[in-house]
Write a structure and sequence with these properties.
The chain has 427 residues and is an alpha+beta fold. Helices cover 29% and strands 24% of the residues. The model is unreliable at 116-121 (pLDDT under 50).
């Protein structure tokens, strides 16, 4: 087991390039099952989660080749089984994304319940709702069996704007007979990437970027050469890192429209940046002061479906707020366990009042001190890295596997920005 040894108190400075969007890469990898032709995927982040997805493809009979760094080729000419190995299914939540493509391609999918981050209840009901309305049957008996003799388009209203359920429904519907309408669909940039990839394969999807998607089923999809967009979660993490350590950073390979919800939230903490083309710069000397609402009221940073502020960045914002002058309410609405990591921030010296499982009031600025930490999930783990780099003294973070599931080559990239971080073997 690996750990991070971090010496805090050193502002980061330098230039970094954003990796491909993890949450776009995962469904796009699953979507390669929808054709027997070769599919080339570019800008794939080299992380644990994408590696597991490619292993699942190979277990199903697909030929997977790494062409060069961040570029992969998949040819699923023969799907030899519909069973996803249990040890792979349990590693990541994204394994559920193979349900839609498998039932569309071979009429059946079988898997153990997916794994992933421990951040509270993560219901799968919306996946079952969407796939059953397209004609699949779902049997649950210790594992999930999806069976469909034929998929037929339908008018689907999702009971929540679930990203992965929208993606599963999309991948099943593109090969279904007739027209499908998905209302209350998720519209995040990674969902848009999947829509654009499927259309490049011959699908007929309209409404991309909205919460109503219309799909005209086709009989067959063909291969494609598709490039994944940049990871705005990672970009937001590096913005937070620069601000919290009172440093600066230039980030290449951004998509400016993705940054609009982030600009509003970071702006409430007095953090600004400039964008030139596809490059974003967080300058040194940020105001780092909470901008109160009208009447001097405490502002709120809360998450919501796109184009709202992304829930994956609430952990990052909580840490950044500890270094900002003023009070702010962080309201994480989706997962009832995600905010529990703040007890570690409190042990480091943060002034945080956890109101309930979803809300925390952060009062800053405060001096953080190094501590022994355990990463509970990808984003809270990165938030702990930022806290440790902002703190005085030494911190040790264990369970870093969870962090590296979502951040490529993190230690080397942070060292390139001047961070004092080393990966060590756990004692």
């Amino acid at each position: 087991m690996k750990q991070y040894l971090i010496e805090g108190g050193f502002p980061i400075k330098g230039k970094i390039s954003a990796c491909g969007n993890k949450n776009a890469a995962l469904p796009c990898i699953a979507a390669t099952l929808l054709t027997g032709d070769e599919v080339t995927l570019r800008n794939i982040p080299e992380i644990e989660d994408t590696g597991v997805m490619f292993k699942i493809l190979e277990s199903l009979g697909a030929t997977v080749k790494k062409i060069e760094e961040h570029v992969w080729s998949v040819k699923a000419e023969n799907v030899t089984t519909n069973l996803i190995p249990a040890e792979l299914s349990k590693k990541i939540r994204a394994s559920i994304l193979f349900a839609g493509p498998l039932i569309a391609r071979v009429g059946k999918a079988s898997m153990m319940p997916p794994g992933g981050d421990v951040i509270g209840r993560r219901r799968l009901d919306t996946h079952f709702l969407a796939l059953t309305e397209l004609g699949a049957r779902v049997d649950i008996d210790g594992k999930f069996d999806f069976i469909a003799n034929k998929l037929v388009g339908d008018d689907i209203f999702l009971d929540e704007a679930s990203v992965t359920a929208t993606e599963n429904a999309l991948m099943a519907a593109v090969l279904a007979e007739g027209k499908t309408t998905i209302t209350n669909a998720a519209s995040e940039p990674h969902v848009q990437d999947l829509c654009n990839m499927l259309n490049s394969m011959g699908a007929k999807i309209t409404g991309t970027g909205s919460n109503i998607l219309t799909i005209e089923g086709v009989k067959k999809l063909h291969g494609t050469d598709f490039t994944i967009g940049p990871d705005y979660m990672e970009i937001g993490s590096f913005i937070g890192l620069a601000a919290a350590t009172k440093g600066s950073v230039i980030i290449d390979n951004i998509n400016p429209p993705d940054m609009r919800p982030l600009r509003i939230a970071f702006g409430k903490l007095g953090i600004r940046w400039t964008i030139t083309g596809n490059q974003l710069e967080v300058p040194i000397g940020q105001e780092m002061k909470v901008n109160t609402d009208l009447g001097g009221m405490i502002p709120k940073i809360d998450d919501s479906p796109w184009p709202g502020f992304p829930p994956d960045l609430t952990s990052i914002m909580t840490v950044v707020a500890t270094q900002v002058d003023g009070n702010v309410l962080i309201f994480e609405k989706m997962f009832e366990s995600r905010m529990f990591f703040v007890d570690k921030l409190i042990s480091m010296g943060a002034r945080i009042t956890l109101c309930d499982p979803h809300r925390a009031v952060v009062s800053g600025p405060c001096v953080l001190h190094g501590d022994k930490l355990v990463s509970p999930d990808v984003r809270a783990g990165m938030a702990m890295v930022i806290a440790a780099l902002s703190a005085q003294g030494e911190s040790v973070i264990s369970n870093v596997y969870q962090i590296e599931r979502g951040y490529e080559n993190l230690v080397a990239r942070l060292k390139g920005l001047g961070a004092h971080i080393t990966c060590i073997d756990q004692q």
